[in-house]
Structures are given as C-alpha cells and as structure tokens.
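Case study 2.
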Amino acid sequence: MPNVVSIYSGGGGIDCGFRNAGYDICLSTDNWGIACNTLEKNGGSKRVVCDDIRNIDYKKELGAVGLEKDDVDVLAGGPPCPAYSKSRFYLKDKKRALEDENSFTLYEYFRALEEIRPRVFFFENVFGFVYKPHKAAFDLLKSKTEELDYNITYKVVNTAMYGVPQTRERFICVGIRKDLGIKFEFPEETHYDPNNAKVTEEEKVRKSPWVTCGDVLSDLDVDLPEDKEMEAGSKHKDLLKEIPPGDNYLYFTKERGYPEPKFKWRSRYWSFLLKLSPERPSWTIQASFSNNMGPFHWKNRFLRISEIKRIQTFDDEYEFCGDFKDQWRQVGNAVPVKMVELIADAITKQVFEKEA
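Prediction:
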C-alpha cells in the first residue's frame, strides 16, 4: 500500500479518505490535542504527533515507525483556511492571505513537500483560495510547486457533484513529481443537480441526482428526549419555525414578498437562520457551532453530531473526542471523506497502478 504523511490532520477527514482508498497513513500531525486524541482513538495512523507544525522533524518521526522520507508516496493536508475564507471578507479588522499571522502554515506545507519529496501531493483549502484578493497565496502555490518540479492540476469542486450530501465547494490541488511524466486528471462528476434545467438527458442517464439530506438522515430522523434542549435560532426561535425547509432569513425580506419585512436584503451572513431541506443536499457544515447560524434541521433544532458526520460522509463508527462544540469543530473543519476517497482512487489508478 502507498504510504501517506498527513499534516494539518484535524479530526481525520483526509486520513479517512485515503485509508478507505487503500493507503497506509504512516504519520499524522496536528497541534490541537483533542483532534490528536480523535486520531489516536480511531487508530488509523501508525504515528500521531501533536505539536506545532514548525517543530515537526519528518526524518525523526518517520524513523519512529521504521520509515525514511524516501518511503513516503503521498503528502496530504489542508493548511488552516480562515485567512482565505468567505467570512474573512466580512471581518474588516482581520488580514487576509499571506498577510495573516498564520500564513506560516502555507509555507510549512511547502517545507514538508521539499523535505519529503513524495511522488504525489494532495492540497486542499476553501474555494476562496483562488479569489483575486488571495492571489499572492495562489501564486505562491504555483511557483513553489514549479520550483520543486511538480506538475499540478487544481479545481474548485462542488462535493455534491461527487455524491456527497453537501453543496460544499473546496479548492483541491494534486501535484505529481515531474520525473513520473504524469499530469493528474480529476475524476468525472458522478451526480447532477436535478433542479438545473441545463442538465442534458444524456447526463441524467450517465449520472445520478444529488444525494439529499433526506437520503442520508431519514433513519436518524426520530425524536429524542434531548432534542428539547436543542431548539435552534437563539432569540429568533419563533421566526425559524416560520421559515420553510431550504430557506433562510431572506424569507422575511421585502424582496421576497414578506408583508411586514423583518430583515433588510442581504443584511446578514448567508447562513443566518438557514434551515435544511430533506429534498436537497446540505449547505456547508461550518466549523463554528452557532445558536443562530445554520444549517439547522428542518425540525428547527440543531443538528446532532451523528447527522453532521453523515453529511460529511464519515463512517457512523468513527468517534470524535471532546465536548459537543469540539466534535462539531472537527467535523466541520474536515474535508468530506467520500470526496477525498474519490481523489485518492484516481491517484491510485493514474500513478501507482501504472508503476506496478
């Protein structure tokens, strides 16, 4: 099995995806103790190191599991992304991209790539990574990978187009060392939006409709005693109950025809009072749990950890450590496992099966 070094591993979304595709996770690293406890608890990595990424000695840590840097086939990870996120556009007091104080995490990714020199790397971030204000970071990715002799292919993917029950957009870049003479090709999309009138009949035959929240949550959709403590919406609980499934606070605006408007058009963040619909995929599960920022369940309650795990395509048996908010953060920060698995499968077919 190909060996993977995982950095910025978090709760293990990328690790799980590669492992499901038949890879061996030889080293995982993160600086958050609770996430490292999760990695340890699920036993998916030969070695888990909990430390600041700047302190990681790859030769030493790989040696602890009997490996050398030359034994590593894949480097995988997504440097922490707040500086590139959509929300950062609303936080005027925060710096963006390479001006952010945590920009070292991007440079540390390239340090790992330069020191290990794996055949392949997998790099993931929020879709805002390609926005014009973040051009310096995007240019750095392209210049460093060229300097290190990797052919790269990148794409902003909507994970719902690959069978994930979530319209989560992520920037994914796969690099293959130039001496292998291969340029990665992303797998073809497997699903389509059934409400998109531009979808052709041929696509409907070849692909499947989006996987919906109803598809993956229906067996969990039973009322539990603790649901009484999970009523969502904060001081807007009563308003949330009026919002139809699949809508948000804009339901109460003049532009939407509400007779006595309660909010101005686009005056709040898009997920304010956002409610799931069982008829479509979820919107992005965010890392920060909130009392009034959704998505919420169509029954006007917070989602359970078991439910957001399904939306992020973790196995039901996968266990997260920490309290409710800690678990939510780990799940929300993760890359959907199924998306990573599909990319990892494509890497296997395009690189490692050809080498065999």
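Strands lie at 3-7, 24-30, 48-50, 74-77, 120-126, 150-158, 169-177, 191-192, 208-209.
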